[in-house]
Amino acid sequence: MTETQETEETREPQESPAAGRPSRRALIGWGGAGLALGAAVGGGAAAMAHAGDDAEPAAAGTGGAVAFHGAHQAGIATPVQDRLHFAAFDVKTGDRAEFVAMLKDWTEAARRMTAGKPVGEGAFDGLAEAPPDDTGEAMGLKPSRLTLTIGFGPSLFDRFGLQDKRPAALVDLPAFPGDNLERTRTGGDLCVQACADDPQVAVHAIRNLARIGFGKVAVRWSQLGFGKTSSTTPDAQTPRNLFGFKDGTRNIAGTESGRLAKFVWVGDADTGAKDAWMNGGSYLVARRIRMNIETWDRTSLQEQEDVFGRDKREGAPVGKAKEHDEPFLKAMKPTAHVRLAHPDANGGITILRRGYSFTDGTDGLGRLDAGLFFLAYQRDVRKGFIPLQRKLAAHDALNEYIQHVGSAVFAVPPGVRDSADWWGRTLFSEEA
Amino acid sequence: MRAVRLTVTAAATAATLTALAACTAKSDAKDGAAVQVTAADSRCETSSTSVPAGHVTLEIANKGSKATEVEILFPDDRIVSEKENIGPGTKYTLTAEVKAGSYEIACRPGMKGHGIRQKLTVTGGGTSAERDPKLDQAVAAYRQYAQDQADRTLPLAETFVKAVQDGDVAAARKAYAPSRLGWERTEPVAESFGDIDPKVDIRKPDLEPGQKWTGWHRLEQALWQKKSIGAEEKALAGELLTDLKDWKERVGKAEITPTSMANGAKELLDEVAKGKVTGEEEYYSHTDLVDFKGNVEGAQRAYELLKPVAAENDPALAKELDKQFAALNTLLDKYRPSKDSYDFVSYDKVGEGQRKELSDAVNALAEPLSKLAAAVVK
């Protein structure tokens, strides 16, 4: 985070200069990719994610900065970074002005951190008698393509007289068969998704926002993700999930403006007077999906491939040669994951997936506490995640090996336009 | 009990203004004539209000009916030198080496209370920069608070110790938490002495190899887990009382500065965040909320004494601290039958959701409190 690495806020992410040398972590990823092939669950998937996505452009932009300002928030259609720290917060203050002031403070901190700068007066300056403004652990690290994306949960709209602004599309998620949701991993008045190529940069961002928020908001739960499972970069290989499979291969790319407008961004046609503030935004569903890793690993290759409807090596749909070959759904088992989830089987329903593999170590029984932290953006949850999940929860062969243990839904407002703008302005500002 | 004990001392040392050095102050002035101090039950007369720097001698005569104590005090009430327990009708000569500055002589008939004060100006070289008198007042008032808490703790500790030594488990359990309250309110001062805290307030997991477990928590374990009192416990109770008397005697000499007060307030909240919210502090008795309340009260006292200065330098911070202290106190009140009771709900009956709520309220207060020291010095 030295001054020389500052990037103009207008710079497009793709144009981020290739850093003089690949970052240390990128190197680890590279080395790991070769070694980890076929390795057991743990680090393998993460390493392959590097190999899959960053192989040719040489770990290129991984150290650079992603523009914070724009029509849409970064962290949705922008290229998927390697690491995640996602936090859900509860509002603790009843004072709207105080909450708005915090959103402005958060925006300023986010603007600085995404540019690779420390919060406030930094980590080493300021009065000796006071704790430093910035916690310091990201000093000397690159911006690492950090993106910070804010969302507002349904419960926020019970506060501050916002009842009339709650979008119709921001529904409470219904209970799905098989759900086993834990209170301490579910819900939240607001969320911040921090994605970066360096985990310390992502954790630093959430930590500092939480600190600024004390007294106004409190962390309800948070989740670390160590390896991306999706790509929004065209032509890239889809990263493998912890089952060892590529999933969601037909994800929406950041360059597909037509599909983004059709499936991801909220537009004029979706909103009325009460939720026009969401124009340019999106809706986010977050699900902590625990995988029964040990039982999966005892499952025959044939069954594993049948469950997904793909071959494990290439990710090709049943009967096809390559990952991106058009699938022939009827060749798959009726309960195969791809057959059930594919847009062609769901009237075209498409969501932008941005999930991460996680492991929080092991549980008390020594089983890997691991799985997929599913993140999906869509234009309308009622036409995206809900019908899809209804179907999957009822029929998906994968249900034998997974359990949804955490859940949340958020309205993700449009982007912060410029240096005078702030997160949530269109919702909270009277003149907006 | 906590690990970091040096903050108060370290901060104080740097900021001490008219430091008394045992032998280093060089004064070319001749040692002044002795100041005659006539102490009685309701008066404290001195023969002189100004003396040259160097060796100052007080010739004290107690003409009252009670034992008395005479002290030379810094502007912030820290003791330069003192003589306790001067009997009625007796005399004592007290000498001290004092640098130039403003001091007070205090006679404390009955050896308690604020005492009767007389000004003493020490003239000559070696003065240091003056501190804002408002801050001196804050430190003096806080020292008095700390002393008062220690004074009031002793009889409560005696009740507890007597119950242990009588082998009365029920009475000892009842007296346990109240005996700790004054300590919890002013813990950073007690911790600044370094040696007392590990003897009276150490928890089992914090013991070093070979270290003998003594103090309140050792007795807590006997009372709640073993449910029995043996000869060892009775002896430990006696030791606890001895150590607490030592604490009481030393409060007046503690290095206290505005910065150490502010940081001490923050540290009290750190104590709550680390040990009380988690239920680790009172692992056997579950009286964590009593300590919790004591910590908050002590922090609030320090803050309120510093507030005249802090509110001037950073009004927004003072407003936020007022609000968050009130919010935390309101939340704590839910766990006791009335505002003058310290019969808090046993912490094992406090659910996870409630602990999260308490933790959030502690964070909401501790974060702005961490900025108090800066608001006091700037």
Automatic annotation (TrEMBL), chain A:
Every Dyp-type peroxidase N-terminal domain range: 73-226
Keyword field contains Metal-binding: yes
Listed cofactors: heme b
Signal as UniProt keyword: yes
Residue ranges of the region described as Disordered: 1-24
SUPFAM superfamilies cross-referenced by the UniProt entry: Dimeric alpha+beta barrel
Free-text remark on how the cofactor is bound: Binds 1 heme b (iron(II)-protoporphyrin IX) group non-covalently per subunit.
GO MF entries: ferrochelatase activity; heme binding; metal ion binding; peroxidase activity
Protein family membership: Belongs to the DyP-type peroxidase family.
UniProt-recorded name of the protein: Deferrochelatase
Organism of this sequence: Streptomyces bungoensis
UniProtKB/TrEMBL annotation, chain B:
Keywords: Signal
Cleavable signal peptide: 1-21
Family: Belongs to the EfeM/EfeO family.
Protein name, per record: Peptidase M75
Domain annotation EfeO-type cupredoxin-like: ranges: 15-115
Protein location: Periplasm
Lineage top rank: taxon: Bacteria
Residue ranges of every copy of the Imelysin-like domain listed in the record: 138-372
The species this protein was found in: Streptomyces bungoensis
Annotated InterPro entries: Cupredoxin, EfeM/EfeO_iron_uptake, EfeO_Cupredoxin, Imelysin-like, Imelysin-like_EfeO/Algp7, Imelysin_sf, Iron_uptake_EfeM/EfeO
Any single GO CC term annotated in Swiss-Prot or TrEMBL for this entry: periplasmic space
